[in-house]
Amino acid sequence: IFMGGSNGAGSYYNTIQTITISTTGNASDFGDLSEAKEVWDGVAGNATRSISFGGATSSSGTNVIEYVNPTSAGNGQDFGDMPVTDTNVALAALSNSTRAIYQRKEGVTIEYVTIASTGNPSDFGDAVVSRRNGAAGFASTTRGCIAGGMDASSGTLRNQIDYITIGSTGNATDFGDLTVAVYSPTGCSNATRGLILGGEESSYSNVISYVTIASTGNATDFGDLLAGTVTATACASSTRGVVGGGQVSGGTQNVMQYVTIASTGNATDFGDFAA
User: Fold this and answer.
1) What is the largest distance, in Å, between two alpha-carbon atoms of the chain?
2) What is the pTM of this model?
3) Cβ partners under 8 Å of residue 168, min gap 6
4) Quick check: 120 and 111 in contact, CB under 8 A?
5) What is the pLDDT of residues 124-150, one digit of tens each?
6) Spatial contact of 19 and 29, defined as CB atoms under 8 Å apart
7) Distance (Å, rounded) from C-alpha 194 to C-alpha 172?
8) Pick from 3, 21, 19: nearest CA to 237
């Protein structure tokens, strides 16, 4: 499930689109969010609920949390509200089958919801580093990671990877470092590996790197995206990661591309978004 988005020129979308990860092809219409917004990586969920946390709108931002059942097409339904309204409020979201967690913009705050119920988020703890702009979120069944981003005060790019134990609450712990400091990458994972894809350094990055989630340590090179891409979004099955959209040199793209998570190598074309 892919929710919302922007063309980078002031137009925002309420579109929800879907793909079948095991095949290739263009995305199909699923339904609509309650409002048009740029979600970035503020989406997480399980097999029965996909949740969208906040996001930028044409006026400023929204604190609305919405969800859909990924097995049944339809429009977004109200889940609850984030404590603050800000643009791109959820910098990086991640989940296991029970909890969905995100780091909030402009600081270190991490919050969570219980996916099976509805309601407002609760405090989880603090990240190791503060972040202002987008970071990559991914998780195994027990551990969640937040990688990259931009310092909330200085604007310095982050190479840090933080991790948390999803089933408990508490502050994040240092995991290791990315291969390069980068902001607005995207992330996805299976139960074993987490992928960090693209982002912006001094220019748009095509780098894919990975970590083994159960252990700690620095990221390792995985391969390359088809082009340097920033502010894309990604999802995964147990075998395949798919990254779509984002900004490339010259504008935004509707391209989706995929990799096989268990191996390393460059991305392959998957299909296109409708917009």
Assistant:
1) 44
2) 0.94
3) none
4) no
5) 999 999 998 889 999 999 999 999 999
6) no
7) 17
8) 21
